[in-house]
């Protein structure tokens, strides 16, 4: 094994450990530092035709401008725009002053500061740090194409999106730039951006109306070939496509399937799944750098301009612990200016949480609470909320408006309608699988997740134990995303007397908590047990506890 191979092997093993715990990654880097061949050693003797390229990667930032997160395993503060900028600057210094800084999408939606500015605060941060390019993620459509175009105009870097087209034709919308060429380190670096084809199902239909999301592999291969023909020394793909890495280092999931079909590409930088990946698919390096600014990815590629080939020297995903870097003062100033602008309202305490209330993809205490609040607000019999619309846990102690924005960042309104018992069951069939369940209020049901859709739900009653009658009509509340068919909930379109109340779900939650606070009560979690899973093998009934993502 050569020194270069040793460096890649050790670094990949360390990065895989990050999938288990960021703390382990940090310690291993420190412990292995003396034993791991340095970059200078690994590239010693390289000819003048060989150029070392350092790529710094983040993804799924989701508006996480403030340094307010704590790593659960280590107890350390982690992330924030100024901290991320500090790590980027440290990598620039380490690389001799020049790196390629890229993003794989979903950078804006998700926090109060970002949402209140429709992403403008995040773009200002990215401009300041010097991002070279980003991919368009599915959440870039959350405020509609008009706002996306405004953010593209604001940015000093290109938003790349090669696999989105207008209508049925071959033309891309004007904002969808497929590629970019960056002159860096004496090289022409070609970039291609693509977004998950799941975007229509994950977006409010009105925000992606008239857009067609094509499978990206053929498109990427054609564009990569064009970039090569036009003199690109290196071709990198920014893909808002997710995946995972198994303990043996194998990269799995959509990002693996996507990468396995690529030709003429030197590396793929993924996103969407909020996971840590630092491995290879075939001969192509693949990286996903967690989410919310909690980590940055570093990949070093040696490019031989005489042969047009690249070699992976190193790839690492490292946590952005606040204590390990000097925050960038300019970015701190940018974030503070936005924080001050909205501080009065955002820091207002609206309630006291008597305990931590967790979210999850399975039945969760926070999902139950939000559904209960929604249902009570419109006096419905049943309420549904998609798990993916709940983006953070509710911490114990004082609850601020800003925290509710973190939990419910989307501008969803409450929609009411009448559904029959049979249609309610179909909603549960759609919302129940091995991947998780829809959050509910007013129902108790059992299911077998492994059964095919249409056969998963075994029993359903109202919360008082009354059987759900097949032909009976029930008043149902949900959010406008689900009511519009988001996440595949097309059954809602069959409801009667469908009414968008135009009442923001976030405002309803805030008002409910304020009333509880005024009454001198604390927010506590409802009991679990609404969704009960039947074991496929034993058919024994067991409760499912929510897991936090």
SSE topology sketch:
Blueprint: H1 3-18, H2 22-32, H3 39-42, E1 50-58, E2 69-70, E3 77-78, H4 81-94, E4 100-103, H5 112-116, H6 120-129, E5 133-135, H7 145-154, E6 159-160, E7 164-166, E8 179-184, E9 187-195, H8 199-202, E10 211-213, H9 217-229, E11 234-240, E12 244-245, E13 251-252, H10 254-260, E14 267-269, E15 276-281, E16 284-289, E17 295-304, E18 309-319, H11 329-346, E19 349-353, H12 365-378, E20 382-385, E21 397-400, H13 401-407, E22 413-420, H14 421-430, E23 432-433, E24 436-437, E25 439-441, E26 443-447, E27 457-462, E28 473-479, H15 480-483, E29 496-504, H16 505-518, E30 531-534, E31 541-543
Helix pairs in contact: 1-2, 6-11, 12-16
Give an overview of the whole structure.
With 549 residues, the chain is α/β, with parallel strands linked by helices. It has 2 domains: 3-16 and 53-337, Purple Acid Phosphatase, chain A, domain 2 (4-Layer Sandwich), CATH 3.60.21.10; 348-543, Alpha-Beta Complex (5'-nucleotidase,  domain 2). It is 29% helix and 28% strand. The strands form 9 sheets. A 6-stranded mixed sheet has the order 6-5-4-1-17-18. A 6-stranded mixed sheet has the order 8-9-11-14-16-15. A 5-stranded mixed sheet has the order 25-20-28-22-29. α12 (365-378) packs across α16 (505-518). The longest helix has 18 residues, at 329-346. Residues 1-47 and 538-549 have low confidence and may be disordered.
